[in-house]
């Protein structure tokens, strides 16, 4: 079951791209959009090995906000434009990982999901068989998620926990 329109922020985009899971967005949502500010963030380093995947996936999904960005004093440029674009397009989800920005977005009444929540949803829908290898890949690629949180999720999903030595 697809879940409408999602607006994606750069942190989650990098996390999904680095583990080769951008396709989950198309499997889980009817439509994916990013604001121009997020495009600027994810396309800063065009020599990065994952940029080609990000470019192919998002180039036709960039949308400029039409209103003034009055949120940059409380959150970064990409996150603030993501919140504004969510409101302008009446999106269903905001894909965002930054804890502070997510809390602000939720206080504005936005329906937020993070990379981990998206991966749990993908497993529930049988698009991902196991979370453990995916979580290990996130950690090995220096995506900063708490090992305790990841292990709590794995336990709830009936999977074995990650040992610290597995990700060194």
Cα shape: globular
Content of β-strand:
5-15%
Q: With helices defined by DSSP (H or I, 4 residues minimum), what is the helix count?
A: 9
| Overall domain count | 2
Terminal CA distance: 37 Å
Helix content: 40-55%
- Name the strands of the widest sheet in spatial order: 3-2-1-4-5
Order of helices and strands: EHHEHHEHEHEHHH
**Structural class of the secondary elements?**
alpha/beta
- Report the uncertain regions: none
Mean pLDDT: 92
Major beta-sheet overview: 5 strands, parallel
User: What's the count of strands?
Assistant: 5
- The CATH C-level class name of the largest domain: Alpha Beta
The CATH topology label of the largest domain is Rossmann fold
CATH architecture of the largest domain: 3-Layer(aba) Sandwich
Concise summary:
With 168 residues, this protein is of the alpha/beta class. It contains nine helices and five strands. β4 (93-95), α6 and β5 form a beta-alpha-beta unit.
Your description of this structure?
This protein is of the alpha/beta class and 168 residues long. It has two domains: 5-116, Rossmann fold, CATH 3.40.50; 130-167, no CATH class. It is 48% helix and 10% strand. It is built from nine helices and five strands. Strands 3-2-1-4-5 form a five-stranded parallel beta sheet. Strand 4, helix 6 (99-107) and strand 5 form a beta-alpha-beta unit. Helix 3 (36-42) runs antiparallel to helix 5. The N and C termini lie far apart (37 Å). The model has no long low-confidence stretch (mean pLDDT 92).
């Amino acid at each position: 079951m697809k879940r409408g329109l999602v607006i994606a922020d750069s942190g989650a985009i990098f996390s999904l791209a680095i583990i080769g899971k951008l396709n989950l967005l198309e499997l889980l949502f009817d439509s994916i959009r990013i604001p121009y500010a997020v495009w600027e963030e994810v396309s800063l380093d065009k020599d990065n090995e994952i940029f080609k995947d990000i470019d192919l996936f998002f180039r036709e999904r960039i949308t400029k906000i039409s209103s003034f960005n009055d949120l940059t004093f409380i959150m970064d440029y990409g996150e603030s434009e993501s919140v504004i674009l969510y409101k302008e397009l009446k999106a269903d989800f905001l894909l965002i990982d930054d804890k502070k920005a997510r809390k602000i977005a939720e206080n504005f009444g936005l329906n937020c999901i993070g990379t981990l929540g998206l991966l749990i949803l993908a497993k529930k829908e049988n698009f991902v068989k196991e979370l453990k290898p995916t979580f290990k890949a996130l950690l090995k690629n220096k995506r900063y998620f708490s090992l305790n949180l990841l292990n709590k999720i794995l336990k709830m999903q009936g999977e074995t926990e990650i040992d610290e030595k597995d990700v060194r």
